[in-house]
Structure formats: C-alpha cells, structure tokens
Amino acid sequence: DVRLVESGGGLAQAGGSLTLSCVVSGITFHDYAVGWFRQAPGKEHEGVSCIVNEDGSTHYADSVKGRFTISSDNAKNTTYLQMNNLRPEDTAVYYCALTSWDGGSFMWDSAEIYDTWGQGTQVTVSS
How far apart are CA 99 and CA 74, in angstroms? Predict the structure, then answer.
C-alpha cells in the first residue's frame, strides 16, 4: 500500500515558522514527485510547492516563493516544507501528494495528476 503521512502543523504567529513533514511508504521514493497543496475552507486545493525527487528540481507558487522551501531526504522517504515568515492567509489544511506523472507538460500545481494523498495537517497563522 502507498501511504503518505503529514505532520508538523500547528499554530504560529504571523512572521513565525513551521516545518511540515511528509513520510511516504510503499513506493520507491526516487521515482516520484511530491507536491504540497493547501485548502482553506470553501476553497479549492492550491498548489504550494513540488519537488521531483529524481533530480531535486523544485516548484513554488508565487504566493510562497522566497518564504517556503521544499526538500527531500531520500534515505528517509520524507519530504519537508519549511515555512518562514508565515502570514494569516497561509492558514489552511496542508496535504502532501504523490505523482509519477512523466508527461511532456508537468503541471505540478494541478491536483488531478496526483495519485495518493495524505490525511492533511492543519496550519493556523494568527495576526
């Protein structure tokens, strides 16, 4: 079974930091890309970041560029999202997701290409 488990969410003040973790089991981690998405109440999933584990290439939403950093530790089958300078608008449930998409057009922030999702972890940022 393929499983993703997120952790690290919680409450932070504006300007603070949190680090999210996503542990992946049941696959060869190297062969996949891992995305982070978030969903606020009443809104659709928003792509936050993605890392392609084979080569370490990364993608970021404009809204988090310069504040968030994605990384992977392949030996631990874990992807991290370091979130700095948090803002109240970052408040959402954050999900990690797994894709083996290898098409010519890699739309990393499109939720439909991701096959397996974690349970989500709540991030709340107060002002």
Answer: 16
Q: Comparing C-alpha atoms, which of 87, 93, 109 is closest to residue 20?
A: 93
Please report which confidence band the pLDDT of residue 29 belongs to, taking 50, 70 and 90 as the band edges.
Answer: confident
Q: Which two tokens stand for residue 17?
A: 């930091």
The DSSP line for 32-54 is -EEEEEEE-TTS--EEEEEEETT
Single-letter amino acid code for the residue at 86: L
Q: What is the mean pLDDT of the chain?
A: 94
Q: Residues near 104 by Cβ (< 8 Å), separated by ≥ 6?
A: none
Predicted confidence band at 103 (pLDDT cuts at 50, 70, 90)?
low
